[in-house]
């Protein structure tokens, strides 16, 4: 079976690594950029290792990466972000983020009575009996819950930070999605981890597995430009080749890009509903220093402005030159604007709020910055997982197409959904193949 995987990000590389293990498969991963990794691309600048996007692996001991580590024999180290150095800022005051029982007891964002209430809520989520899962959205649950405003704000803020969205969007996330997500996270002994050496530690190993398999190859700088389906076979036209024939295709890219590629095919109608989905975007601000400017904490989340700063190098020392420091700021973004002018003003304002947070906690950072990268709009998740959006199935009914990526149905959020849907797409294709064999025999 000859398989084309279009997209060399986390999802496409995962699907290819699993498929290439089966001796009955051969295939090609097509990636339009010169490098692999997609939005988890890692690059070096003046001795700093910068991630284009993702850093954190949430609920590491219950994450799809754990299965991949065993099933694909991946080797990587990870390190837990020090929970005692994770703080929330509210009304200008810093207090421990209530992420575990010790911090819940220490935090100032809740009163003693509220702490007891919140602990009971956490226990209910862990026990899978929290009412939240029965509500269409977090907003509907919060409107009817008898908790105090502070507990409600805390729920909202947790969802903002784990889903990288604004409070308005947090209220639109389905209760079931949140209950399942926090069931995993609260049960985890390793809630926030970094992969030492960044995502490239994983993407390089996945790519090596594919390249070292003589039946598979990776074609970078080769965008797929058109797909045709004739007599049960796919014909692909790429930037450099006219007609390549495959038995199966996996589209491992954001729906926005898949929609364009499939625009003039008979399947365009089936994708229309998913094309209308909104995505999650954030403002990213990376700053690297040749020495440690200040290290009051390892993560600070500003509850008032929905902006956070991670001291990435405090957890993963490999990302900065010896003795140096790498900070990453992220601001969650609204996506509804009256016009371009309003949008521009909003983004400028978010940039200023971000810089103000750096000013408060890293005095002198502007003069001492060695490396700086600002992206005013980076796509975190290709389909925002809110109630009114619909994640794309891994196998689109009524078509011969498979999909994977962070906009697909799968376990977890963000990068975990890319990994879990990539693994699922590979497993389904192999299962179908086995079924065909059984019928033929
Ligand atoms: C700022 C930021 C912070 C983030 N933080 C986190 C975090 O802390 N934790 C976490 O888990 N996740 C995080 N994420 C999300 C994570 O990076 C993404 O979910 C993940 O990288 C998406 O991978 P993917 O393979 O699904 O898609 P992509 O990375 O988008 O890969 C798709 C690939 O397809 C290629 N492609 C598209 N069209 C074609 C074509 N026609 N032909 C050939 N190739 C094509 C693209 O070039 C791309 O390489 C963050 C993202 C950002 C931007």
From TrEMBL:
Domain Amine oxidase: 10-430
Gene Ontology molecular function terms on file: oxidoreductase activity
Classification via Pfam families: Amino_oxidase (PF01593)
Protein name per UniProt: Amine oxidase domain-containing protein
Organism classification: Bacteria, Bacillati, Bacillota, Bacilli, Bacillales
């Amino acid at each position: 079976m000859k398989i084309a995987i279009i997209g060399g990000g986390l999802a496409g590389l995962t699907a290819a690594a699993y498929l290439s293990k089966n001796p009955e498969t051969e295939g090609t991963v097509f990636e339009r950029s010169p490098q692999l990794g997609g939005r988890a691309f890692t690059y070096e600048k003046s001795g700093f290792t910068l991630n284009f996007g993702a850093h954190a692996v949430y609920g590491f001991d219950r994450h799809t990466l754990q299965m991949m580590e065993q099933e694909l024999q991946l080797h990587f180290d990870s390190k837990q972000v020090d929970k005692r150095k994770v703080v929330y800022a509210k009304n200008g005051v810093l207090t421990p983020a209530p992420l575990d029982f010790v911090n819940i007891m220490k935090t100032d964002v809740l009163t003693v009575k509220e702490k007891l209430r919140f602990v009971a809520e956490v226990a209910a989520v862990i026990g899978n009996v929290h009412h939240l899962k029965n509500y269409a959205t977090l907003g509907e649950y919060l409107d009817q819950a008898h908790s105090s405003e502070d507990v409600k704000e805390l729920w909202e803020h947790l969802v903002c930070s784990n889903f990288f969205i604004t409070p308005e969007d947090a209220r639109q996330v389905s209760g079931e999605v949140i209950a399942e997500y926090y069931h995993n996270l609260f049960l985890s002994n390793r809630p926030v981890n970094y992969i030492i050496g960044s995502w490239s530690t994983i993407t390089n190993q996945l790519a090596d597995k594919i390249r070292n398999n003589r039946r598979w190859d990776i074609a970078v700088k080769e965008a797929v430009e058109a797909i045709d389906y004739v007599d049960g076979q796919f014909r692909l036209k790429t930037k450099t080749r006219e007609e390549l024939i495959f038995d199966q295709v996996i589209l491992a890219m954001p729906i926005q890009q898949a929609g364009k590629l499939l625009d003039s095919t008979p399947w365009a109608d089936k994708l229309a509903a998913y094309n209308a989905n909104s995505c999650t975007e954030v403002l990213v601000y990376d700053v690297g220093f040749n020495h440690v400017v200040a290290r009051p904490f390892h993560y600070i989340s500003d509850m008032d402005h929905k902006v956070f700063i991670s001291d990435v190098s405090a957890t993963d020392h490999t990302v900065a030159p010896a003795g140096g420091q790498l900070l990453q700021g992220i601001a969650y973004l609204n996506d509804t604007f009256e016009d371009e002018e309003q949008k521009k003003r909003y983004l400028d304002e978010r940039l200023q709020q971000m810089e103000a947070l750096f000013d408060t906690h890293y005095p002198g950072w502007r003069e001492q910055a060695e490396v700086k990268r600002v992206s005013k709009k980076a796509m975190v998740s290709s389909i925002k997982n809110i109630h009114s959006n619909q994640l794309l199935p891994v196998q689109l009914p009524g078509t011969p197409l498979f999909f994977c990526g962070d906009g697909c149905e799968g376990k977890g959020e963000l990068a975990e959904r890319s990994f879990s849907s990539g693994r699922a797409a590979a497993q389904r294709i192999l299962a179908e193949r086995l079924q065909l064999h059984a019928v033929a025999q």
